[in-house]
Amino acid sequence: MLKVNTAALLEPEIEEPDIRSYLAGQEKKTLLRFLTCGSVDDGKSTLIGRLLYDTKLIFEDQLAALEQDSKRHGTNGNEIDFALLVDGLEAERQQGITIDVAYRFFSTPKRKFIVADTPGHEQYTRNMATGASTADLAVVLVDARQGILQQTRRHSIIAALLGIRHIVLAVNKIDLVDFDEQVFTRIVADYEDFAKDLGFASIVPVPISARHGDNVTQLSERTTWYTGPSLIEHLETVDVEPKIGEQPFRFPVQYVSRPNLDFRGFSGTIASGTVFVGDEVTVAKSGRHTRVKRIVTYDGDRRSASEGQAVTLVLEDEVEVSRGEMLASPQARPQVTDQFAANLVWFDEHPLLPGRAYILRTETDQVSATVTQLKHRVNINNFAHEAAKCLELNAVGVCNFSLQSPVAFDPFQENRSTGSFILIDRVTNATVAAGMILHPLRRAANIHWQALDVTKASRAAIKHQKPAVLWFTGLSGSGKSTIANLLEKKLHAAGRHTYILDGDNVRHGLNRDLGFTEEDRVENIRRVAEVARLMADAGLIVLVSFISPFRAERRMARELMGEGEFVEVFVDTPFEECARRDPKGLYARALKGELKNFTGVDSPYEAPERPDIHLQTAARSAEDMADELETWLRERGYC
What we know:
This protein is an alpha/beta fold. The chain folds into four domains: about 15-235, Rossmann fold; about 250-330, Elongation Factor Tu (Ef-tu), domain 3; about 335-440, Elongation Factor Tu (Ef-tu), domain 3; about 455-635, P-loop containing nucleotide triphosphate hydrolases (Rossmann fold). The chain contains 17 helices and 28 strands. The strands form five sheets. Strands 7, 8, 9, 11, 12, 13, 15 and 16 form an eight-stranded antiparallel beta sheet that branches. Strands 2-3-1-4-5-6 form a six-stranded mixed beta sheet, with helices on both faces. α11 crosses α17 and α13 runs parallel beside α14. The longest helix is centred in the C-terminal third of the chain and has 20 residues, at about 520-535. It is flat. It starts with 5 loop residues before the first helix and ends with a helix.
């Protein structure tokens, strides 16, 4: 049998010294992280596939598979469809769109690259924001036949908000407009006019055909009127590197390492700056000073460590540091506050509602947060600031936040790592927004908690009761107010100190300025919960009778109260029975369409999943249920 020496068919072996020099050369190359973005079908995936192909980073087996996939899923006839190199999901190939963020690495003799191919469809804007969060440059693709579209504007605004300062405007499919210079010039002028207020450091326009390779890696003979660089030439030479030592030392603590009694270290990844053994550092929240005793890594101790390196710091003093804290340079400390303003990109199908509590998560910290004010929404067509009561899916706005406890941060423009956060829905645990901190709010800097000698416990003790907030929730007409009123009469007769906060009564005064939109309902409950908390602090038993249709607001109210003070009472009456009773004639009007935003008809009611007390009202009298509640309170020592 004939044996072939396959080694002889390969390239000549590289001597060991050559390998070392090659690897050393690769290490010295700079790295550029960039993303491709723009509207659907502008050619983002095709461009990345072309870059991989032209830089010879496609193996023969990949090329063979690509040719087969192009016949099955391609859109270019018998030609190779380069988009399929990065559209890896079957759903993407079938639909011809990008859904997820695909990251690819490639290299040229001058530079290394990590490129994120982000989806253009409006539904997946959050995925685009994910890709932009770590990018230094954005390649914004525009279909030469379509010009600047709404999604082009949205992606450009998000890129600007996420700190990207360099843009390549890639006018793609220039071959489909016969390489017309006037078309290119018009699109460039439109984009520059739109982006003039976005603060980009550079906008470099390039006419390209990703499908055929014109001006991608080499200048095309079919655009002799274009005198700028090819796309790859610009990517190889653009300067996006921050100046060394420009940012101060920041070390968000991810984990406290305590393997034994003799070792206590703080683990994390350096967000910015450099630290040396012996350097003085400050614990951001407490302001305590100490010095770095050791810098420990998997490979042993180091004398110094810089941005991007994962290390464990051992400190000289036993200072209190936990996950979520930040070690920083004493000469340039981060901001520490519980109120700030931020840009926000909203991802969720349910709108952002001011007053609703969310979980705010920074790089290592987590805290309950409320949007106290939606200052404005950004119009993505003209960058105008518009008044708004909520932020809907893919909207961009500026909000003020109030946090349950302070966090350490830098403004996003100064440090992308320590100035960014995400919002998480407290009920679904879904990530609903990405935020970029603008500045702290100093309006409450002179407000502090006043120490009081008479405590909640002493106020309650003199009344011979435990403070409690009984939160009655249920549909309109379910019997909440009737039961609460009967219960208060029983408690009052027994000498207890009580007060009822009723939904209708409160809207005559405290909440008379609020309507019945979803955002107004959220604010309605927030105000009532704060009043109920103050009344509980006075030692009262507070009966709150509100529809309170949303679980998030009921949970917010619970978390305002002390341990064991909040009692959720679900007055469970079927919709049909409530509509039959219709004591105020509201159901009849709502079912005719005369009354909008009515709970249970055209506005949702989220029933409690695990109420403290579940009153199923069918075949039961209000007096019987009031007796049950009084017994429940007495058995647990409230009265």
